[in-house]
Design brief:
- The complex is a heterodimer of chains A (320) and B (285).
- Chain A is an all-alpha fold and 320 residues long.
- Chain A has 13 helices and no strands.
- In chain A, helix 5 packs antiparallel against helix 6.
- The radius of gyration of chain A is 24 Å and the shape is globular.
- In chain B, helix 2 crosses helix 4, helix 6 runs antiparallel to helix 7 and helix 7 packs antiparallel against helix 9.
- The two termini of chain B are 27 Å apart.
- Classes of the chains: A mainly alpha (320), B mainly alpha (285).
- Chains A and B meet through helix 1, helix 6, helix 7, helix 8 and helix 11 of A and helix 5, helix 6, helix 9, helix 10 and helix 11 of B.
């Protein structure tokens, strides 16, 4: 590795770690500053000041904020995310339990979005001004205008209530959890919902990036050499046009995970998003912190990796 | 000196932009509906009638009635208020912060720029909905809280765009000329950079309004928006969810209202962008 590149990588990794610490401090502070605490939810109904104080002491909420944070961060560094206030289960176990469905949903949606958006973006750019271009902009426009939860409900209305083709909610049928075909049938509507929303930005970027590349000299050279149109687009132009698209995929993770929160709620999908929503309503601080720490880690690492991949792939990008 | 954007010609170009015009009309209709809700709504948003529960769309109830026998059309009209109010307040806040921060970063450059843009990176890498969810759930779903936190997660993209615009403007001759004539930083920023960056900010405002309305409706859907019986499009969709099999209209129409409004703001924003700078046509951010 060149020294310049090494410094750059170290700097970026260091900054990613700093960001993670920053995010966790912000979240921790916001939660502890909020009026009312978990005691109200845990006891329910009327309760005395003493009872509340007792619970706060048991949960360690009576200590100074900085100490609480340091305690939490120290444990988190050792892989211990604490225990849920509500159920007493280890937070790490709760998250691991819910991780599979969310990973399946988000990756399925990402794959679906890319499979549709990239070819459509290419068609829209190559056949500029034709019906493909119009179709492409319609997809892009609708994708950024649809409320994802409503799209999900409309799909349920159509495919579950009217046609009875697909199940409206859940991961699988009771007792058939191991049955692959049941799981696939349950996954179709949520994946479609999240994927359709995500398509818009991928398609926009593929189109504009390819249009940019098609104007470059080397594309003209390739054409002048007598290469066919399809070959020029697929072999020469698209490879370069996809570089910015990779970045957009990396940057889209926050929206994808955010979209998963709503999609999981609509489809009663037992993933991280629903875990987070439940924990927020119940003021289950350790679970909220755990989920957010995990999501932030994934998002920040993905951005870091895209940045690094970028400067390895494209020698023109200077790293300073 | 580059010519200021010429107003008549921008207006004329916009008038020829069909999709932009459609968006403008939709936006106008929604704004009128929201502000004149008490006059326009055929019935009160909370008037219940148990005899008229779950009635399909008809001549008396154009969009049908909900589980309490309330008129869905009236509730959709009233619901536009919550969406538009939060959308407008949040967008204004995000624009003010984003423009101020972005122009300072772009104009001064160097360490100021780096520090500000790194802060923006932090906000761009937290899943926005998570942060909003936490703040709204813990601090309460008042209009001010919701608008404030939506602005908190949406200022960063505005800041980035304004920054890059100011970055390219600050080395132009007219800026150097102003500096040579003794104009201070504040005057150059306010009179020269921001005025020229204004078209981009206006376009962003329209696109951002659509986004903030989507975020608000998502929060309402999760139960963190306007509290019943006050209607918001998001909480109407939730209420309609349980009647999906028997009364499709309850969830369908408020959702359609969200979609059409957001689409309107997006079309309007695209039209404005194309009209203010024809070279950007088709280059979406």
């Amino acid at each position: 590795m060149e020294p310049g590149l090494r410094t750059y990588v170290l700097k970026r990794v260091g900054f990613a770690v700093l960001m993670l610490v920053g995010v966790s401090i912000i979240l921790f502070t916001i939660m502890r500053l909020a009026p009312g605490g978990p005691e109200a939810v845990l006891i329910g109904g009327e309760f005395s000041q003493e009872a509340a104080a007792q619970i706060r002491q048991r949960l360690g909420l009576d200590r100074p904020l900085a100490l609480q944070y340091l305690g939490w961060a120290g444990a988190a560094l050792r892989g211990d995310l604490g225990r849920s206030f509500k159920t007493g289960d280890p937070v790490a176990a709760l998250i691991l339990d819910r991780l599979g469905p969310t990973v399946q949903l988000t990756f399925g949606a990402l794959a679906l979005a890319l499979v549709v958006a990239v070819p459509l973006g290419v068609l829209a750019a190559v056949r500029r001004g034709t019906i493909w271009d119009t179709l492409g902009s319609a997809v892009a426009l609708f994708g950024v205008s649809f409320p994802s939860f409503w799209l999900g409900i409309m799909l349920i209305l159509l495919f579950s209530e009217v046609f009875h083709w697909l199940p409206p909610s859940g991961l699988s049928e009771y007792g058939r959890e191991a049955d692959l075909s049941a799981r696939v049938r349950h996954a179709i509507l949520p994946t479609l919902t999240l994927g359709l929303i995500q398509m818009a930005s991928f398609m926009r970027f593929t189109r504009s990036s390819l249009l940019e590349v098609l104007r470059q000299d080397y594309v003209r050279t390739a054409r002048a050499k007598g290469l066919g149109g399809g070959r020029v687009v697929w072999r020469h132009a698209l490879r370069n046009a996809l570089i910015p698209v990779v970045t957009v995929v990396g940057l889209s993770l926050p929206t994808l995970v955010g979209g998963a929160v709503l999609t999981e709620t609509v489809f009663a999908w037992p993933g991280i998003g629903r875990l987070a929503v439940g924990a927020v309503f119940e003021r289950d601080y350790p679970v909220i912190m755990g989920v957010n720490l995990m999501v932030a880690t994934v998002v920040i690492s993905a951005n870091l990796l895209t940045d690094l991949a970028y400067c390895v792939i494209d020698p023109r990008i200077s790293y300073r | 000196m580059p010519a200021r954007p010429q107003r008549p010609s921008v207006a004329r170009r916009f008038a020829r932009h069909r999709r932009g015009l459609v968006g403008g009309v939709v936006v106008a209709v929604m704004l009128v509906a929201g502000s004149l809700a008490p006059v326009l709504a055929p019935q009160s948003y909370s008037a219940q009638s148990l005899l008229n529960r779950l009635k399909p769309p008809s001549a008396t109830h154009w969009l049908g009635t909900d589980g309490f026998g309330r008129d869905v059309l009236s509730r959709v009209i009233w619901g536009s208020r919550v969406s538009l109010e939060i959308g407008l307040v949040a967008t204004t806040l995000a624009l003010v912060v984003g423009t101020a921060v972005g122009s300072v970063a772009g104009y001064f450059g160097g360490a100021t720029d780096t520090a500000i843009m790194r802060a923006a990176d932090v906000f761009l890498s937290v899943p926005a909905l998570f942060l909003i969810l936490i703040v709204v759930a813990l601090f309460g779903a008042s209009l001010a809280n919701t608008a404030l936190v939506i602005a908190l997660v949406t200022w960063a993209p505005v800041g980035r765009i304004v920054r890059s615009e100011c970055l390219s403007l600050r080395n132009r001759d007219f800026v150097h000329a102003a500096a040579a004539l003794g104009a201070g930083h504040a005057r150059i920023l306010g009179r020269h950079l921001l005025v020229n960056a204004l078209p981009i900010v206006i376009v962003q405002a329209s696109l951002l309004l659509g986004q903030t309305i989507l975020i608000e409706s998502g929060l309402s859907y999760l139960g963190l928006g306007a509290q019943p019986p006050l209607p918001s499009w998001g909480n109407m969709v939730v209420e309609g969810r349980q009647f999906l099999a028997s009364a499709w209209w309850i969830a369908t129409f408020p959702g359609l209202a969200i979609f059409v409004t957001v689409l309107g703001f997006n079309l309007f924003g695209d039209g404005l962008r194309d009209a203010s700078d024809p070279t950007l046509r088709g280059h979406s951010p």
